[in-house]
Amino acid sequence: MSHPLSSSDQSLAQIDGGNIAISSPDAIDEACFSVPAVRAIHNAYPNGTIVVFAPEDVAPLWRKVEEVEKVIAYNTHASARNVGQIIKDLEIEFTKSIAWENNPATSGFAQAFIPIRMGTPEKDLLPHLTHPVEVVRPIGPIEHRVRHYLFFMQKLGAIPFDKSNFLHPKRPLSGEQFRVAIVPGSDFGNSTEWPLANYVTLTRTLMDYADVTIIPSHDRPSPAIALGKKVGRPEFVFRGDDDEVLDHLATCHGLVGNDGSIPHLAAFMGTKSLVLFGPNEPLWKRPLGKQHQFIRHHVPCSPCLLAKCPLDHRCMMEITVEEVLDEMRTLFSP
Known about the structure:
By secondary structure, this protein is of the alpha/beta class. Helices cover 33% and strands 16% of the residues.
C-alpha cells in the first residue's frame, strides 16, 4: 500500500544514516538536473550513504559527483529482475530508495524489497513505491526543470538552493590556446539541429584563432563526422568513450552546439556553453547555470517539443552564423 508522505512525517523525512539507493533518470539532461538534489540530500544528511543506480551511458557523470559513495551501472536493456539481483549481490542493506521515473532500477528496488521506497506519484511509478512524495507547485511562469528535483528533496527535509549543491567537479587545467567544442548533432532529434552548412562556416572562422574540437552526439555521430570532413580536418572529431568525453569537455574554454545531451555534460563539468534552441523551451531545459547562454528565435510554432519538424524548420534556420559568433565573443571573452 502507498502512503502519501507529508512534511510532518518525521520518521520518513529524516533520512539521517543508512544506505540510500537512488535511481538516476535515464536521460542525460534529466540526470544532470537531478545532481543538485542528490547533493542536497547528502548535505542535509551526511551520515547517509548514497548509492546511485544508472544506465551505462549515464553512470560516468555520477562517478564525478563526490557526494555519491558508489555508482552501479546497468545495461539499458536490463530488467527489474536483473537490477533486483544486482542489489542482492551487493550485500548492502538499503533502508530507503528514491526514484523520479519508472525504469529498471526503480522496479528493481521493489524486487529487492527495499523497505521505504519514495518517489514522485506518477501513474507508472506508483506500483513500485511505498511512500509517494507529492510536491504541488503553484501555477505561474515556466520553472527550470531542476526545481522538480529540488522541491522533492525539500519535502524530505533538505535545503534545496544552497550554493554547494551546484558546484561542478574538479576541472583539469586548460591549455593556453582557446579551445572550443562544436556539437553539430543532437540526440534529441534532427529538428533541434542547426544546418550543417552553418556549422561549416562557423568552424572555419573559429579555426583561424582557436583550437577546435568536434564532439559527436550520443546515438548520432554522423553530423560531427561530416563536419570534420567538410572542413578538411577529420582529426578534429573527438573519439573517446563516455568517461573520456567528460574530461575532454572540461579542458574546453567554451562550447557551442544544438540542444542535446553533450551541452548538459559540458555545463555539468563547468564549461561555458552556448546552446542553439528551437523546438525545446530553454527556460525549462537550458543547461544548468547562469554562466551558460542560449539563442532562440521566437516563431509561432515553437516550442513544439517535436523530434522531427513537420514544417519548415524556421526556428533553427533563422539563427545566423554572425549572431552565433557575436554571442560567443560576449560569452567566452576573458
